[in-house]
Fold these 2 entries.
Entry 1:
Amino acid sequence: DAKTTQPNSMESNEEEPVHLPCNHSTISGTDYIHWYRQLPSQGPEYVIHGLTSNVNNRMASLAIAEDRKSSTLILHRATLRDAAVYYCILLKTSYDKVIFGPGTSLSVIP
Amino acid sequence: ETGVTQSPTHLIKTRGQQVTLRCSSQSGHNTVSWYQQALGQGPQFIFQYYREEENGRGNFPPRFSGLQFPNYSSELNVNALELDDSALYLCASISDSGDTQYFGPGTRLTVL
């Protein structure tokens, strides 16, 4: 299984943009890049996913490098509710078992 | 709101006992997966069911077993509980036409 590498932790000020990086240098052509987040005491929550093109939804944007070996999750204006562990995961289909790494723990400073 | 519910929210058992955890998925979600999340770690895949048949399993012993029912509910059963089984247990469901997994809030199991 292709692996991802993320920083262990990041900090952001409230209402500022946050860029969460993810490296996946061994990604295959059929791997989709998924992002989940897990708020304290809750189950993981789907954030966004993409294959090659940048993607936007109501929660975030996903910027994918041209060679697909890295991606960045962008939260446009961090709020205190965005404090969570963010997981970058590669999946060939939505039915794949999700292999969670340690993720990035995001702290948002008021 | 993912539409995936789990019960109970919390549970305390003693070593050697058996436990059944329950998950209810949305209508039309024929695939369900179960995960174990120890404190401070990411979730670990236990197994997956599709239309009542197991179709994938992680590195967990046979005392972890499951059932899936036609009404989109499922169960995780753990026999001969060990202290290390203390964890948050998560289920996730996927629709046949879906493109992602939707997780429930989890059941916190404590084994004393």
Note: The longest strand of chain A covers residues 84-91.
Entry 2:
Amino acid sequence: DGGITQSPKYLFRKEGQNVTLSCEQNLNHDAMYWYRQDPGQGLRLIYYSQIVNDFQKGDIAEGYSVSREKKESFPLTVTSAQKNPTAFYLCASSIARLRTNEKLFFGSGTQLSVL
Amino acid sequence: KNEVEQSPQNLTAQEGEFITINCSYSVGISALHWLQQHPGGGIVSLFMLSSGKKKHGRLIATINIQEKHSSLHITASHPRDSAVYICAVRKIQGAQKLVFGQGTRLTINP
């Protein structure tokens, strides 16, 4: 079955540590996205990528980094510069960037907590 | 003020009741999405609308572009409908970004 796989489901970060969240899709989608979800707030865009080897900052990119070396993979690194990393992180993908009515497909999320 | 507002924030109902969740937005949009987030955290896309009405099973979504308002209805609600329902809009400007509402937590009691 096609879909988006996020791992791990739960992740703990020590102070000063960088951690990487994995996102893999086998839907052959060009566009991929990372969102952060905090309690009582709407999802906020961290980074997005429209094509391999290209990515753009979203609304809250500070303290995060990404790479897009392969079409199917879009890992997110939460760096030590992100002072409030505890949140639920969701990865999503869509077919292409050029069509404005694209449906989004989401992974099952990673809960990141600080030790 | 948020660009996308949902109401109510929390809704509890009995099995079989007709459910309405509302979404109002303040920006020009090219499409509106209704999403369902299960207790485990995964999100499923229910509808994508740019005008009119769509129906899928017991779910109905409507949008009024002039009034900048959308509703999600659930007929004959069931405990398995318990989830967080999220409205998101794709703004005309900056079309790569969706703006999300804060979600409506729905609980259906048997």
Note: The radius of gyration of chain A is 13 Å.
